[in-house]
Amino acid sequence: MSKGTRRFLQQMLIYGLLFFFLVIFLFPIYWMFISSFQPNSALIKLPPQFWPQDGTFQNYVRILTTPKYLNYYKNSAIVALSTVAICILVSIFAGYAFSRYRFPGRNLSMSAILSIQMFPIVAILISLFVFFSRMKLINTYAGLVLADITIALPFSIWFLKSFFDTILRDMEEAAYIDGCGRMRTIFEIVVPLVLPGLLAVGIYSFLISWDDFVFGLTLINRDTMRTLPVGIAMSFLMENEYDWAGMMTVSVVASLPVLVLFIFLNRYMVAGLTQGGVKG
Q1: Which CATH class is domain 62-275?
Q2: pLDDT in tens, 39-88
Q3: Nearest to 83 by CA among 204, 199, 176, 178
Q4: d(CA 205, CA 197)
Q5: How many CB atoms lie within 10 A of CB 52?
Q6: Where are the chain's structural domains?
Q7: Nearest to 52, CA basis, from 43, 64, 62, 61
Q8: Farthest CA pair distance, the chain
Q9: CB 147 within 8 A of CB 219
């Protein structure tokens, strides 16, 4: 066997394995999508139908015209967008402070912030539930947003700090000479230079809050305040009967914001993850 033939076969084997794993990873998404166009009776047939033979839009009509499901969607949007806004704002100031200032306890504070990521969510949830009960934050947007921030903020601060480390101090000093104050320098000079990092933090915090199930299940017990992940579980996974078609339909609708986010911001996300690890 010639060297060229051997190399061709090796490449074909690599591409074949990549295609095989790609099919495995994408099949659940494909199955979720086609199941949303089928009735429940078609989803439990054997052998399974890998292409909808009796396609219908009734599942989407039912979901999009039911106020309860639209309310779940609204609650998730409010919590996710609020979490993103607060995480970005706090991360800018905290990351900048840790990057530019040297003060007693700085390293200890940074380690303490990051150590929150090492605790299981269940361990954090116990203390949060007791605290929120005393502060009357159960069944409120504020309580759920604060809980999601607890998980998303530590990484966001560290991530943005690494970006601020790459910005030369000379640029800030030049702005001070031109008469800019500290706040104006941060928002007009520094922040535009770390825009990929801000977008990466926004996407990360959005995913944390949009996909949250544990906090939403524990801190919210009123149906009108539930978010999408909890609403899906409570509405379609019943004790004696599962509404698979409805659950798949809501899951497709719930996945659309994340899909759109990655389609339009994917290159900024990659740029943020790569640039943040390079110290200039």
Answers
A1: mainly alpha
A2: 877 777 777 777 777 777 888 888 888 888 889 999 999 999 999 999 99
A3: 204
A4: 12
A5: 16
A6: 62-275
A7: 43
A8: 76
A9: yes
